[in-house]
Design brief:
Blueprint: H1 2-18, H2 24-59, H3 76-93, H4 95-100, H5 107-118, H6 123-129, H7 134-143
Helix pairs in contact: 2-3
């Protein structure tokens, strides 16, 4: 009889003590939810960046990818402009070879040039935002994108 009272007393003490301890599972659930949301956002961000890079690589097959120097978060438009500037620099180096064999302009760039022209941007501004030369842009606009 003494053992059963001792066990029952210890059980009651543990039940009373359990009310005073924090429930760590709620904090763990909250942390897990925040982690899953941040992973989802990072995944979407990386998909958008990858799509931009893939489009640029499809346009210039000899484009060399350089490792990023900073890990800071950047504006997607700024990243796009940097990639476009790198591709443009690569094209200017290869321009003597391309004059002999002119390559057709990719349809994505043609539609981009037409949309930027509809927005009222000048040929120089369109050239800065895309990987095309002003002559190529004038050719696209004069042909109507064909």
């Amino acid at each position: 009889m003494d053992i059963s009272l001792i066990i029952m007393g210890v059980g009651i003490i543990f039940i009373v003590l359990s009310f005073f301890f924090k429930d760590s599972s709620k904090q763990l659930e909250k942390d897990l939810e925040e982690l899953s949301i941040s992973i989802y956002q990072e995944t979407n961000s990386m998909k958008r960046r990858l799509k931009i890079v893939e489009e640029e690589l499809l346009l210039e097959p000899s484009f060399k990818v350089q490792s990023p120097k900073t890990q800071a978060k950047k504006d997607p438009m700024a990243t796009f402009q940097q990639v476009a500037a790198q591709v443009k620099a690569t094209q200017t180096v290869q321009q003597p070879m391309q004059r002999a064999t002119t390559q057709p302009v990719h349809s994505i760039l043609v539609s981009q040039v037409i949309e930027l022209n509809k927005q009222g941007l000048s040929i120089e501004e369109i050239s800065k935002r895309s990987t095309l030369t002003p002559e190529q842009i004038q050719g696209i606009l004069s042909n109507g994108g064909v």
